Amino acid sequence: MKAIRYHEFGGVEVLKYEDVPDPEISDNEVLVHVKAASLNHIDLRLRSGKSPRPVDLPHIGGLDISGDVVKTGKNVTGVAERTRVVIEPAVRCGKCRFCQRGESNLCVAAKVIGVNLYGGFAEYVKVPGANVVPIPDNLSYNDASTIPICSVTAWYGLLERGNLKPGETVLVHAAGSGTGSAAVQVAKLSGAYVIATAGTDEKLAKAKELGADETVNYNKTDFAEEVKKITNKTGVDVIFDQIGASVWDKNIQSLAPRGRLLLVGVVGGGAASANLGALIMRDISVLGVTVFNAARKDLSSVVNLTSQGKLRPVIDKAFRLEEAAVAQKLLEDRNQFGKVILNP
Q: For residue 206, what is the domain's CATH number?
């Protein structure tokens, strides 16, 4: 099969479009013919060698995958060949204390397809039968491939970790990203008032189309001051933050008493100094969010909502598999709005 593989860490130039042996499945696995695989920033960090997650070389990335089941292992039940599926990336061990007590989403020995295991930037991928979720006929492969990381992160982060309630105010940073554009929609669907930030007016206009009530261009204005104006100095109830250290202080300034800061990513740095007194005095909660701890039901829920038209996948551009370097550069330069797709 053809695949995008890298044998060393570095820039997009290390990505090689090459022949790789077809995957051989075990009795508990299925073979999926990949129809679409969307890119995430974790793909860039893994390729560059800057991710704390271990990667064995050579490696095939790609965590967000949709396609057709073409072969099933003899122990696989509940999924047949020719089933259209999307893939949950986290593979649970089934043995740790969390798995044993029915909380496999908290598995301490989980592996991730596209990180510890070969991923979807290839014509075929093998995955455990338990990791495929059927998709309805009205959901395209491209749309389905946007869901597992970005949309589920937004859903799990805002509703489960953030306990978002109708009528609350949410600040969504980086609304032009795949996860940010999903978070704007999930927040609105939940009945929240949404303030979205982005670095260009064009991206903010698109965020408005997705349901943002207010927008802030962080390259032109101080978002913390704008939040004060918008909320009449009361602050926001929840912040959905993919940036991290560079906006830490202003995030804390922007939160209302008992506000919740959801830390989803650290593209702006992973180390910050904190004034703990401010957190204590205002009952502020800081919550980490990783999609790999989301339950499988979250993926199924988002698939259903997307197929019903209640959530809309946002795709900037689709590329052929052999154009992976161009696609990753587009994401790396942050010139996209929403998701970037590869079609093997």
A: 3.40.50.720
